[in-house]
Amino acid sequence: MSNTELHPAETTCGTAQSPDVELLEPRLVPLGGPRAMTVRRTLPQRARSLIGAWCFVDHYGPDDVAQTGGMAVPGHPHTGLQTVTWLFSGEVDHRDTVGSSQRIRPGEVNLMTAGAGIAHSEFSTPETTMLQGVQLWIALPASARTGPPSFEHHVAEPVAYAEATVRTFVGSFAGTSSPVTTYTPTVAAEIVLPAGVAVTFEVDPAFEHGVLVDVGPVDVDGTLVDDAALAYRPTGRTTLRLTTAEQPARVVLIGGEPLGEQIVMWWNFVGRDHDEIVASRAAWMDQIAGAADGTPYGRFPSSWGDDVLPAPELPNARLRPRRQPPG
């Protein structure tokens, strides 16, 4: 998915910790034109920019595709990150410049590694009536951020854990693992809980964690978290307790070891400084115009035609890191 904001802010991600659960409320961002699907974005924001290496969290739906047109994101670039797509309902077709053409359905994960540069498109299928899911980005560490692009698809089988049902789609959690490639210790899992239960999970104390509530509310370690909010927990915890009341719930758990690197994120690019972002944008615009020396973001699929997203204009000021407030 693309960050389609016309004036995307640059974001520098660091680490900050709090002994308590920290609530991150979403802001609404339109994904396209006047009839666009709206997403709820909880990362990045001023209160916190990173959870482990996770640097971007969009949550959408249930979206009536007949009213909004669903997901319609033409070809657009990425650098220095991995995109992770996870659906609760509906289907999306993915195409990219390493030759991948993949339909994603609920219970399956698409993981795309941008490395030095890739481009992709995402469109909900004609058969989709309701669309609901999350789009997540992982910032690549310095050791992997200029490597080759790639794409992986995996079906995450459900497993029972106490009263909960868990699908682990990145890393390892609740006794199950996903084979998709990551470059820092990272985890992501869907957890479904019936009404009136309390389930305690073992978690890695070296990880920061976030609990994004898709259907709630859910009590996260004593803090009530409503739909679409993200609960942050710092490192040092060995357990995670989720409790439901009269309603069943569904959450997405993300986490990982703190990245330990400052990154600047603007539009769909993750870099380390202003000049790198400027160069990534210029390379994309040159490729669109046909003026690039080669294809730095890969060869466009023939089905795209001229349907690609131009990059927004850069701000007049030099991109500077956004300081991470203390937890």
Automatic annotation (TrEMBL):
Fe cation binds at residues 76, 78, 120, 122. The keyword rRNA-binding does not apply. Residues 189-284 form the Pirin C-terminal domain. The keyword Metal-binding applies. GO terms for molecular function: metal ion binding. CDD domains: cupin_pirin_N (cd02909). Gene3D superfamilies: Jelly Rolls. This is Pirin. It comes from Mumia flava.
